[in-house]
Amino acid sequence: MAWRSSGATNKDLVENMWRHGLIKDQRVKDAFLKVDRAHYAPAAPYEDSPQSIGHKATISAPHMHASATESLLPHILPSETRPAPRVLDVGSGSGYLTHLLAELVGDRGLVVGLEHIQALKDMGETNMAKSAEGRALLDSGKVKFRVGDGRKGWVEAPRGGETRDSTGWDAIHVGAAAVELHQELVDQLRAPGRMFIPVEDDNGYDQYVWAIDKKEDGSVVKEKLFGPLGNFVIYEGDNAPDFAILSHTWEAEEVTLQDVHDAQKDITLMAGYPKITGACRLAQSQGYDYIWIDTCCIDKTSSAELSEAINSMFNWYEQASICYVYLSDLDYSIYQQPGMTAPLELALRECRWFTRGWTLQELIAPDNVDFYDKSWHLVGSKLDESLGPALANVTGISLDILNKTVPLESSSVAERMHWASSRVTTRKEDLAYSLMGIFGVNMPLLYGEGMKAFARLQEAILQDTGDHSIFAWHSNYETSTQEAAFDQHILSGLLAPSPVEFSQFQYLRPLPAFGTTGQQPIQLTNQGIRISMYLEPVDDDQGGDDGSAADDFYAVLDCAIQGENGDQCPRIMLRKLSGNQYARVRTGSVCTVIPAPDSTRPGRGSYKTVFVKRSPAYVLPDISVLKAGWKAGGAREAYRVVDSYPTGPWVPSLGILRTGNPYFEPVLAGLRFESPTNARIQVDVVVGWRRVDGEWKVWCHACEAQADLEVDVLWGDTQFAVSGGLDQFVETDVEVKVQVEGDVARNWRSRGFAQVKRHEVPVRVRLVEVDRLGRKGVRIECCAPLQPHIPGYQKTGLLPWDEYD
Hints:
Pfam families: DUF8212 (PF26640), HET (PF06985), PCMT (PF01135). This is Protein-L-isoaspartate O-methyltransferase. It comes from Colletotrichum costaricense. By secondary structure, the chain is an alpha+beta fold. The chain folds into 4 domains: about 10-225, Rossmann fold; about 245-405, no CATH class; about 505-615, no CATH class; about 620-805. The protein has 21 helices and 36 strands. It has a 7-stranded mixed β-sheet with strand order 5-4-3-6-7-8-9. β6, α7 and β7 (about 190-200) form a beta-alpha-beta unit.
């Protein structure tokens, strides 16, 4: 059981056990407050842990005494049917629990402490006599200490008013584990009565704590209370004893803390149980009394405890005296057979442990790490001359870091990210949470945020360091993907999406800034990063054919990698969006500069303060459409949009076109406009983007609609034409002549037919710049002169024939 119960005083200790629900009954709490544990465990009386008292004996942890007292309480309190409770404490040791029980049995009760060693029996009496309350109990005869074989129990002579037939025990507490449940103890229980006893399992190693109840009819019922993993103790601060710690990969049926406490569950049948007992046996054989195992030592039902554990995990592994790495998929015996030539390193590369995110810190943090195969055969230590180099090759971590001959902080951010670049976790958030200790940062846990957790991790790192290597990442695009084809136009922030992007550089190291005039510290905002970077303009011949070179800059990072010709500094490409707002582009590659810039370098670049949003976007004007029916430019009516392609950008309810990446969508949409009074007057307008003098401008192309062609056909043709260049699409104000024919009608006078005269309607399409509260926009106006007398299109029907030619 895991409890944070240690305190500075006896009252603190008791209050902590009360607060954590270990002591539930007020009467038990009062008894614990009366008995000062300092009289029984003087070395560290208020620590919630077992302690040696000599003679190969220990005083149990206070929480164990609390569990026993709470379990026996109904049978040790005086009542009408039990006015003088009798309690036997087998293995009374220091006498602490004997005193506690005596505070609860009432004035007529009796508690006998039984020890098999005279010195321990004397110790119990001496300790109890240290307090006035203890001396009173001894003097009154309510407490007696005896020497005898606890396996056989004890028969105390009858007191006044008692007969030999009534001298059994209402409650028996057994402090030391028994190999088996001895019948003599069961026989001495009164009916009803209860015994609290730890019993070894069949394997001789595990222990369960049982409650043995004798019912009024004499029948005996056994109930498993907890076990078999022993006592769970939590130490706070730096006062923890030497302990071992287990590193492993989670698999099916791991034993959790809830499983351990579930009295109805037999955890020995769970798949993860042998792994735990194997680690416990190993720790015990090496002289450790404690071991920490993440599966069963964290209450994962408590979000607060889980958050604390994850934020503290690196420190716990660092503080451990020894870390056992259990490789469940490695059979080391194969590599010990005569004639085996396959190197162990190849087998280690296949072990799942080396691919998991959490195990990275479990390899780095402890001083001593021993590796074991699936049968708990020792493979070696990370400090071994043979295994150490193999671990360095498999993990990419230098021997200096593994052996701790250099501090972890000497490695750059990018190098540490590189170690994690090939590792995975079950939950996306854990890719970030598992690295907190590696970078010495803390964060609240927000499961459900996905990869935003990794962005938060990088921001937390930047708050502690100005290491530019955190920006030396590259996107791992597949060559066939759209992202790879348009890499130069994808806008990105400065932070990497995941650790995978740090696979390129392994040994980057931070450099002091060069040309530091005007350099400023990194500032984090809720929108992005403000940072001073060394910018060099991209030469025109290095830019694309899209006119972006004038807006692109190389940002040379203040870090370096050792190359054949000296230090090389990585550089990334930034694109200016507007003002001091930039975005990263061409994330599919990180170039290097030779040599590293220094004071002797020609001054092509300089430090500039730039602002990069988390999710940057091109600064584009809003595009709206003049509402149909509105009058514009005198006696002109605005046409309505009746069709669009593709359907996504056009939002009829708002009268706007939604914009995307202008490089990916130079043709934004095709719109079909129609006269609100004449459905046969239609104009197709295609709208797109072009880059002019560092700003995005809207262009349009208009033509008379063809009745037999849908708007997507024109859009597709224009899209194809745009791929050859945008020079032909520069219209911002264009007039389209729309030919309109009248209806064909029968002439009743001549019994022939008359053709309505063809008319030409001038439709004007123009782009008008507008300003809404300081935000620039463009309004598309498709208008034509009012046409009240076009033959054949009056709502009242055909005009008189004398108006036709």
